[in-house]
UniProtKB/TrEMBL annotation:
<dbReference type="InterPro" id="IPR026590">
    <property type="entry name" value="Ssirtuin_cat_dom"/>
</dbReference>
<dbReference type="InterPro" id="IPR026591">
    <property type="entry name" value="Sirtuin_cat_small_dom_sf"/>
</dbReference>
<dbReference type="Pfam" id="PF02146">
    <property type="entry name" value="SIR2"/>
</dbReference>
<dbReference type="GO" id="GO:0017136">
    <property type="term" value="F:histone deacetylase activity, NAD-dependent"/>
</dbReference>
<feature type="binding site">
    <location>
        <position position="154"/>
    </location>
    <ligand>
        <name>Zn(2+)</name>
    </ligand>
</feature>
<feature type="binding site">
    <location>
        <position position="157"/>
    </location>
    <ligand>
        <name>Zn(2+)</name>
    </ligand>
</feature>
<feature type="domain" description="Deacetylase sirtuin-type">
    <location>
        <begin position="16"/>
        <end position="278"/>
    </location>
</feature>
<keyword id="KW-0479">Metal-binding</keyword>
<dbReference type="InterPro" id="IPR050134">
    <property type="entry name" value="NAD-dep_sirtuin_deacylases"/>
</dbReference>
<keyword id="KW-0175">Coiled coil</keyword>
<dbReference type="InterPro" id="IPR029035">
    <property type="entry name" value="DHS-like_NAD/FAD-binding_dom"/>
</dbReference>
<protein>
    <recommendedName>
        <fullName>Deacetylase sirtuin-type domain-containing protein</fullName>
    </recommendedName>
</protein>
<feature type="active site" description="Proton acceptor">
    <location>
        <position position="146"/>
    </location>
</feature>
<dbReference type="GO" id="GO:0070403">
    <property type="term" value="F:NAD+ binding"/>
</dbReference>
<feature type="coiled-coil region">
    <location>
        <begin position="296"/>
        <end position="327"/>
    </location>
</feature>
<feature type="region of interest" description="Disordered">
    <location>
        <begin position="337"/>
        <end position="440"/>
    </location>
</feature>
<keyword id="KW-0862">Zinc</keyword>
């Protein structure tokens, strides 16, 4: 990887590979046959249309809706030390997120279509919902960087736990224990928690992005490392296409970066329409999920249901844990007041969560979350601010607006310290919302 500029490219910067910085130009690049090794990287945003909330979106993100629970912080639900101390919050969440409760989105089906057309080199996903598998992406082309619900085992002796028994425990939100009675350790799905090592498959394929001739990133904040560093591995001159609600990582700093800021499914549909694959993808997806589910996702009705489900989820956690909003320090106080005891050989750790290390004793990187410094140079669009010529990249989904047809693409320059980057967004008219028969 060559030297990268720390600032956004200007609008008049010439592209190295694409005809211009647009989704249409990426489609042209694919149709020309020059993109044969496409690497796709996905995050929680690809699954929101399926009804699975992402983690960080205002109002609808899981972290936001868990914030009022009696936890040291919402992320503690996915921290291994807190899990040892109290696994029940995770299992209440697991009941909601478990595979089989949700259906793939058209974006998942798009990745499967790339594989079908022999254009997919590898899919790297941060998601644990297994929807890529459900969509038909071959398992050998999937790197589940943060693990998945597909398998589970004891966190102490690593003995696998039966699938059927695990489903029963998840459905009842009851944490299971190891099948080896002499161990008795807690069991959890093979999901990577903060403080745990990533799967070996991630490190075995970590250099694959260097082989890509096109990188597509869909619905991720790129805040969790080492996954967040994957897009930077693309070689100079290799186009990178981002479908996301806002600019993330170093996107926009290379001449062939294309940013579609908006709903992931809308961006994917635009790309496949430009490719001439629209009808093929829609047929493939509807056959996969059924007409009713496809229409539900198209109409965005699930946004309204998400709010109700999350409220029920929070109430369920509060009831099961007998928590109160007046006991914010319960967890930390319980640890602080615990009587220290010497650990015998083989005894499981019950120490309070601390800041997780970034690497294990043997030097292997661990899953960590980094809050990147936010820089707002004069003239840039800040978070929660809207430029009149484009949709806000942090649009509040509580408006529950259905935008499915009549989309008009615009290119709005974003000025940063004397330079300009063009971000592709979408604007729609009032008539789009009123159309009772959205196109398939």
């Amino acid at each position: 990887m060559g030297q990268e500029s720390s600032s956004l490219v200007s609008e008049d910067t010439k592209t190295d590979t694409l005809s211009d910085r647009s989704v249409a130009a990426v489609a042209e690049f694919i149709k020309s046959g020059r993109a044969k090794q496409i690497v796709v990287m996905t995050g929680a945003g690809i699954s929101t249309a399926a009804g699975i909330p992402d983690f960080r979106s205002p109002n609808t993100g899981l972290y936001n809706n868990l914030a009022r629970l009696d936890l040291p912080h919402p992320e503690a639900v996915f921290e291994i030390d807190f899990f040892r101390y109290n696994p029940r919050p995770f299992y209440v969440l697991a009941k909601e997120l478990y595979p089989g409760n949700f259906h793939p989105t058209i974006s998942h089906a798009f990745v499967a279509l790339l594989a079908k057309k022999k254009l997919l080199r590898m899919l790297f996903t941060q998601n644990i919902d297994c929807l890529e598998r459900a969509a038909g992406v071959p398992p050998e082309l999937i790197v589940e960087a943060h693990g998945s619900f597909a398998t589970q085992r004891c966190i102490d002796c690593k003995t696998p736990f039966p699938d059927a028994e695990m489903r029963k425990c998840v459905e009842s939100a009851s944490p299971p224990n190891c099948v080896r009675k002499e161990c008795g350790g807690l069991v959890k799905p093979d999901i990577v928690f903060f403080g745990e090592q990533l799967p070996n498959t991630f490190f075995a394929n970590a250099t694959v992005p260097r082989e890509a001739d096109l990188v597509i990133v869909v619905g991720t904040s790129l805040m969790v490392h080492p996954f967040a560093g994957l897009p930077r591995l693309a070689r100079d001159g290799v186009p990178r296409l981002l479908f996301n609600m806002e600019r993330v990582g170093d996107f926009g700093t290379r001449a062939d970066d294309v940013l579609y800021l908006g709903e992931c499914d809308d961006g994917i549909r635009k790309l496949v329409d430009e490719l001439g694959w629209g009808d093929e993808l829609e047929k493939m997806w509807v056959e996969l999920v059924g007409k009713q589910e496809a229409e539900r996702q198209r109409s965005r009705e699930r946004h309204e249901e998400v709010y109700d489900e999350l409220d029920e989820l929070v109430q369920d956690v509060e009831q099961k844990l007998e928590l109160s909003e007046d006991h914010d320090d319960h967890y930390s106080n319980a640890i602080a007041n615990a009587v220290p005891q010497e650990k015998e050989d083989g005894e499981r750790s019950t120490k309070a969560p601390t800041s997780p290390p970034t690497e294990s004793e043997d030097g292997a990187p661990l899953a960590t979350e980094e809050t990147l410094p936010t820089r707002y140079p004069e003239g840039s669009i800040k978070e929660s601010e809207t430029d009149e010529g484009t949709n806000s990249t942090t649009q509040n989904v509580s408006k529950k607006e259905a935008f499915d047809i009549g989309k008009v693409t615009t290119h709005t320059p974003v000025e940063v310290e004397g330079t300009t980057a063009t971000a592709e967004s979408d604007s729609r008219t009032e008539s789009d919302v009123k159309d009772p028969n959205p196109a398939l």
